[in-house]
Automatic annotation (TrEMBL):
Keywords carried by this UniProt record: Signal
Residues of the Retroviral polymerase SH3-like domain: 65-121
Organism per entry: Phytophthora sojae (strain P6497) (Soybean stem and root rot agent)
Signal peptide: 1-19
Protein name (record): Retroviral polymerase SH3-like domain-containing protein
InterPro entries from the UniProt entry: Retrotran_Ty1/copia-like, SH3_retrovirus
This protein's record includes keyword Signal: yes
Top-level taxon of origin: Eukaryota
Length: 152
């Protein structure tokens, strides 16, 4: 999953660690057939169904607010790319290519989510995967004849 995220985003390969962390974040929140009633691993641990609204496309462009401090003529927002979620806060990890740094901020706009109007293909693929895996019990270990994604 992380490999696909890196190549689909077009980011450099040195972001592989962020891709692996974000892939784990997503997988821990998605339902799996290994748990009773297809609960996610996080739901099994906490008993609360996770919210998937904050999952965004890895490497998607965004506008991130950045506190300019006392420099009045410095821009307050910069264009960056989302490379994950921060573990300690509810913020996103955003790579700013102009400054070549990663910042953590909750204040992002123009975020590409799964529910974005341009992602009908992703929505259809997700619906197909969930319906075919629910019917087969998700017992396949790799993507095969049914087209189900690999479990595990």
């Amino acid at each position: 999953m992380a490999r696909c995220m890196i190549f689909a985003s077009g980011l450099a390969l040195h972001f592989w660690g962020d891709a692996v962390q974000y892939a784990a974040y997503i997988l821990n929140r998605t339902p799996t057939s290994a748990n009773p009633s297809r609960a996610s691993p996080l739901e099994m641990l906490t008993g609360v169904q996770p919210q998937l609204a904050d999952i965004v496309v890895f490497g998607s462009a965004c506008t991130a607010y950045r506190d300019p401090g006392k420099k009045a003529w410095k821009p307050r927002a910069e264009v960056g790319m989302i490379i994950g979620k921060d573990d300690e806060t509810k913020g996103y990890k955003v790579y700013l290519p102009h400054d070549r740094i990663v910042i953590v901020t909750q204040h992002v706009q123009n975020v590409e989510t799964l529910n974005a109007p341009g992602n009908e293909q992703l929505q259809a693929q997700l619906a197909e995967w969930t319906s075919c895996c629910a019917g087969t019990g998700g017992g396949s270990s790799s993507e095969g004849e049914s087209g189900c994604p690999r479990q595990g």
